[in-house]
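User: Structure tokens for this complex, please. No commentary.
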Amino acid sequence: MKEKIYIISGTNREAAVSLQVAHIYQDVFERKGVESEIIDLQNLPDDFIAAALYSNAGTHEGMKDMRKKMKEGKKFLFVVPEYNGSFPGVLKAFIDGLIFPDSFTGKKAALVGLSSGIQGGVLAMSHLTDILNYCGTHVLARKVKLAGIGKNMQNGEITNDLYNQLIDWQVDEFLDF
Amino acid sequence: MKEKIYIISGTNREAAVSLQVAHIYQDVFERKGVESEIIDLQNLPDDFIAAALYSNAGTHEGMKDMRKKMKEGKKFLFVVPEYNGSFPGVLKAFIDGLIFPDSFTGKKAALVGLSSGIQGGVLAMSHLTDILNYCGTHVLARKVKLAGIGKNMQNGEITNDLYNQLIDWQVDEFLDF
Amino acid sequence: MKEKIYIISGTNREAAVSLQVAHIYQDVFERKGVESEIIDLQNLPDDFIAAALYSNAGTHEGMKDMRKKMKEGKKFLFVVPEYNGSFPGVLKAFIDGLIFPDSFTGKKAALVGLSSGIQGGVLAMSHLTDILNYCGTHVLARKVKLAGIGKNMQNGEITNDLYNQLIDWQVDEFLDF
Amino acid sequence: MKEKIYIISGTNREAAVSLQVAHIYQDVFERKGVESEIIDLQNLPDDFIAAALYSNAGTHEGMKDMRKKMKEGKKFLFVVPEYNGSFPGVLKAFIDGLIFPDSFTGKKAALVGLSSGIQGGVLAMSHLTDILNYCGTHVLARKVKLAGIGKNMQNGEITNDLYNQLIDWQVDEFLDF
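Assistant:
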């Protein structure tokens, strides 16, 4: 049986498209008979940066569940919206608050980038690859770039056939990775 | 007269070495007759990620002063500790919460990286350069890498002569940039 | 009077679009009353990698002129086609064969990326920025991304108004940089 | 039985340390019972950039053997010396001249960086990871950084115990990747 996949919706912005894309991936995993679960950064505690980082890492009740899942999971799909030419600061802060090295060493990740503009999160995913590799997590070569996401989604579904094809290929490759 | 420099101490970690390095730069600027002011990310509000980003950007009283300075300043020196192979998530979140594009377009930045290990924040500064350039801020070519910072500081001073020389060169170049 | 600009056409591929784009920039510089000259990597000697690098750097007659210009020039516009997700290897090899540090320290560069696909050379320009900064050259924040270049050029002219606008803005900013 | 590993010595510089490091890895592979073969970029034809790239890719007799191996191999260990803050231009030019996509899709790579300075090829390996991932090759998370290589080698052997340990770990992980 295939490993359960954890899908990280990489922003705490309300009503984020990232969460919709996370659900789209969850549907694809389900269609292929693989269990997945979404870790939604909207659930980060309000006082996250003060009470759940550095010497406080691990003490915040509101982080216990997410940290446990990131420690136990083996495969992670990161949905990465592009904010100011890279990933959301909150996504990196989330990583900074996890359990080291158990959340990362020898694990596997796949990345999907979203942008309203034409870049599709290329640099965001390059930066995140550097970080994940540094932490010991292997990154799937194929990174899906969903540029112009606003024009390519409707009612929570991706309307661009190429994008759906790329997602399908990536999921297949990730399950074999 | 030279422009006032804003020095961003790039982490909210308590008792951070970054803040000490920020003070060292402030002393160098002062010695050269240039005014500077430290913006310390330890002063970010506890509920920063919930109440000062996205649709809430600009509404939080505790951010008004920092946002105003980042908007009005022309030259920024970023002190960037290396966390997990890049900059602290909190530093990028701080950037995500600023006023666009007025905080960035046509401005100038210099970067200094700190690490306890041997990397000296090389990737952190590469990533931050991508972000600042994307936002419209020019970055000084010389980036100072303070690797092994723990062994090279004592009582708030840098004890490594080469490091002090590099800082001095960088400051001179930044004042002319 | 404004400094003369050297425009590097960043590939030795025959009939490269990069050379056409170099000429377009030259026209823009001329219209603004600024002298420029194209350094075309198609002129690299055939035996460049064997006879003009490392211990042979500086000995090849066919490189004398290009090396002299890169040493004496102060401002460089790099036209960077995207090959395999980054810049052409030949462009980096050209850099590896220049005079250090005189070709780089304290100089200024602007970058324009070309791609047939949607990426517009984003990663190519990020990598090149790292290299130029490492060598001591400041890079203009605004990097022009000419994605889908095949569909946006005709008879040596760019037919996309936005692209022409971006080039114009970049040139103005570069002249003031 | 384990796949044969191809070790790319990433420069055509004569008497390069990279080739020595390639041999060190070959010894480690042999000790672990795994066949490997070195592809030495010193063997690139002198007229490589003129006669073996773009429309000439595949026609040069002197490249036939190397291109065939890169097409047939499944696992590649890249030895990457740091030149001007990144990999050698010649290494990227070599990649630009390979068979696409058959040399890359679904394959696996491990990277080791060398530098005389303190950086250990960090940016070189970050850039190369971007390129390999773009081309469809998965990159092992652990990248070995051999900084200050001049002081840490003698008679073709690495004298730094930590470096030898890191190489050993990397090889074990790569064989299981």
